[in-house]
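Protein modeling request. Please complete all fields; requests missing the sequence field cannot be processed.
Requester role: graduate student
Desired output: 3D structure, token encoding
Chains: 1
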Amino acid sequence: QVQLVESGGGLVEAGGSLRLSCAASGRTFSTYNMGWFRQAPGKGREFVAAISRSGGGTYYADSVKGRFTISRDNAKNTAYLQMNSLEPEDTAIYYCAATTAIMMQTLGKYDYWGQGTQVTVSS
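Delivered output (123 residues):
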């Protein structure tokens, strides 16, 4: 099992940037593909970005492509989500998740989830 803890959320003005971090417990971080999801008030949880075990493959939702960058540092057991050019529509609770499955863009394939971190973007 693995435990995930997100951090780095906060309040930012439109056009600003935030960097989210996801710290994983244990020493098997590199076993997992990692993903970021978000959930806005009254809406379901949606895929944002994912990265393969070694970091060689990255995937993004169309809504964030070109603005967000996912990365990972396996030596630090940490995944990151750099968010630039933030928009009010990005306001949500952001969750990181871990999966051993290949289909990294599918919410149901993730086995472990963090508690979430709030990102609020003002207009």
